[in-house]
Design brief:
This is PAC2 family protein. InterPro entries: Proteasome_assmbl_chaperone_2, PSMG2_sf, Rv2714-like. It comes from Scardovia inopinata F0304. The protein is globular. It contains seven helices and nine strands. It is an alpha/beta fold and 306 residues long. The protein has one domain: 3-Layer(aba) Sandwich (Rossmann fold), CATH 3.40.50.10900.
């Protein structure tokens, strides 16, 4: 258990103005809509001129190749096998900030050993802080700002809001780092679950902005605003052809708008009604009889999500 009274380690540049921050994201269970890994990959591409790959973790000790399979590809006219790996890259965002970006598939085995190896590599670059990114499908509408949840190791968690349940490698990395005295921050974005499992640029944009706010610097957005608008337009199209989905999203909008208005309290009867309608809608999607005229298109026919 992390001792909330233990002082956080002053790594790296200590009291100087320069910070080195590890930002980590992993593909898989923690990566709904590829928003978490997509955020790191966006930064690698947007800051490509100054990015330098410095290390990697690639070992069958951590991966089940039947689950996370190697890829065959052609590089410079030669066939090669690309094995699953997590890469580490450095980028100087400004004179005062360096990012160490960690991204790759979530390991299948020996998570504690993996977390310790990640921290050993990060320690070589004298990091001052660790930020893990995640994304999860949730009951949120695409027509409103996507919620961001934050957890900072510098503050004791609120027992009434602390999550209890299954976790992924970002949580293991956070926990291991906090036990070692590192300051950690976890940023998670909620992704509309009716949007499908394809890339969600709107969630990536939300995470990039949240990361910018936390770091106190403007990270490049590139074409994310334009891609987000196109994504939301495609989601709007789904509502036109599906009355049930349109009704469901309107209910989510009411909940979202109520949560944003502090002085407005949702009546218990209405709250219970919205919850029941949401549950009934989700059950209808799992029903074998659910495909019908006006039903939600499958992932192969979703406009904008294929």
């Amino acid at each position: 258990m992390v001792d909330s009274q233990q002082p956080l380690r002053q790594k790296g540049h200590g009291l100087s103005q320069h910070r080195t921050v590890l930002v980590a994201a992993f593909e898989g269970w923690n990566d709904a809509g590829q928003a978490a890994s997509g955020t790191v990959r966006h930064l690698l591409q947007a800051l490509e001129v100054t990015v330098q790959e410095v290390d990697h973790i690639c070992c069958s000790t951590y991966y089940d190749y039947q689950y996370t399979r190697p890829l065959m590809c052609t590089v410079d006219g030669r066939r090669q096998i690309i094995w699953p790996e997590v890469t580490f890259s450095t980028v100087d965002v400004s004179d005062n900030l360096t990012l160490l970006l960690e991204v790759g598939p979530e390991p299948n085995f020996r998570w504690m050993d993996f977390a310790r190896q990640s921290l050993s590599i990060a320690d070589d670059y004298e990091i001052d802080e660790i930020i893990t990114l995640g994304s999860m499908f949730n009951d949120v509408p695409h027509t409103r700002p996507l919620p961001i949840s934050e957890q900072d190791s510098a503050f004791p968690p609120d027992p009434s809001t602390t999550y209890s349940g299954p976790v992924g490698i970002p949580s293991i990395l956070d926990f291991t780092a906090a036990e070692s005295g590192y300051r950690t921050e976890s940023l998670w974005v909620s992704v509309p679950q009716y949007a499908g499992a394809d890339d969600c640029p709107y969630a990536i944009l939300t995470l990039v902005k949240a990361l910018s706010h936390h770091l106190g610097t403007d990270l490049p957005l590139g074409n994310l605003p334009q891609r987000s608008r196109q994504w939301k337009q495609s989601a709007d199209t789904l509502l036109v052809y599906n009355d049930d989905l349109n009704h469901y999203v309107h209910r989510l909008e009411k909940i979202a708008d109520t949560e944003e208005t502090e002085e407005t309290v949702l009546p218990p009867a209405l709250s219970n009604q919205l919850i029941r309608e949401t549950e009934n809608f989700l059950k209808s999607l799992d029903s074998p009889d659910s495909p019908s005229p006006g039903s939600v298109p499958d992932s192969g026919s979703n406009p904008g999500f294929s």
